[in-house]
Specification:
By secondary structure, this protein is of the alpha/beta class. The protein has helices at 14-24, 39-49, 65-74, 93-98, 111-122, 130-137, 154-164, 169-176, 180-194, 199-208; strands at 5-10, 30-36, 53-57, 80-85, 103-106. Helix 7 crosses helix 9 (180-194), helix 7 crosses helix 10 (199-208) and helix 8 (169-176) crosses helix 9 (180-194). The longest helix has 15 residues, at 180-194.
C-alpha cells in the first residue's frame, strides 16, 4: 500500500471526477486520496493531503488550474502536477508548463494512457508533446535562462538533454554510468546556473536551445 501513487483530482465537473476515480481506483498502484471542485479547494486539499500527483483541470470557476499550480509552487508543495486540457485549449499549456506543471494530457485521453501518464510524471518524467515544443521554440521568455547555457559543463549539458527527453534521475544515472546522487547534484547545479525553478522549466529550456536528442 505504501508504494501506491497518491492522486488528487481537481476538476469542477463532478461527473468527470467520478469517472476518473472509478477508473483509477482499479489500478493496483494508484490511490485517489481526494477531490476538489476548484483551484482554491485544490490548493487547500493538496496542502492537507500531500498527494504524489495532482490531476488538475485548467478552466475552472474562480481560481483556475494555472493559478492554483503557481500557488502550489510558491508553497513548495512537492506534488507533481499533471494538467488536463482539451485540444482547443492548447494555448494554456505553455503557461502551465512555465508555472511548473510536469506535463499535460488531453481530456479525451485513453484511460490506460492516463494511468501511464500519472506513473510517468510520478517517476520524474516531463510530458512534453511536439506541438508544445514548437510553440516554445517560437517564444523568447527571459525568465527561462536564455543566454546562460555557456555556464554549463559538458556533463551538465548531457544531463539537461536527457531531462528534456523525459528521463528520470535514475534513468539518467544508468545512461551516463553515474550514481543517482551525482545526477541530483548535476540537476541542482543546472537549475541554479540557469535560474530555473524546476526540471520542467529545464526541459523547456533544453528544447528551445536544441539540446534534445
Amino acid at each position: 500500500m505504501g508504494d501506491r501513487i497518491r492522486v488528487l483530482l481537481v476538476d469542477d465537473h463532478q461527473v468527470v471526477r467520478r469517472g476518473l476515480r472509478t477508473f483509477l481506483e482499479v489500478q493496483d498502484d494508484i490511490e485517489v486520496v481526494g477531490e476538489a471542485g476548484d483551484g482554491d479547494e485544490g490548493v487547500a486539499r493538496a496542502e492537507e493531503l500531500r498527494p504524489d500527483v495532482v490531476l488538475m483541470d485548467v478552466k475552472m470557476p474562480g481560481t483556475d488550474g494555472i493559478e492554483a499550480l503557481r500557488r502550489l509552487r510558491e508553497a513548495a508543495n512537492p506534488a507533481r502536477v499533471l494538467i488536463v486540457t482539451s485540444f482547443t485549449e492548447q494555448r494554456t499549456v505553455v503557461p502551465a508548463l512555465r508555472a511548473g506543471a510536469s506535463g499535460y494530457v488531453y481530456k479525451d485521453i485513453d484511460p490506460d494512457a492516463l494511468a501511464g501518464a500519472i506513473r510517468s510524471v510520478h517517476a520524474g518524467h516531463v510530458l512534453l508533446q511536439p506541438e508544445v515544443a514548437g510553440a516554445l521554440l517560437s517564444q523568447d521568455d527571459p525568465a527561462t535562462g536564455t543566454g546562460r547555457g555557456g555556464t554549463l559543463t559538458e556533463r551538465e549539458r548531457e544531463v539537461l538533454g536527457l531531462i528534456a527527453d523525459g528521463r528520470s534521475n535514475r534513468e539518467i544515472a544508468r545512461a551516463l554510468v553515474l550514481s543517482e546522487k551525482t545526477v541530483k547534484t548535476h540537476v541542482s547545479n543546472i537549475l541554479m546556473k540557469l535560474d530555473l525553478a524546476d526540471r520542467t522549466q529545464a526541459a523547456l529550456w533544453a528544447v528551445r536551445h536544441g539540446l534534445t536528442t
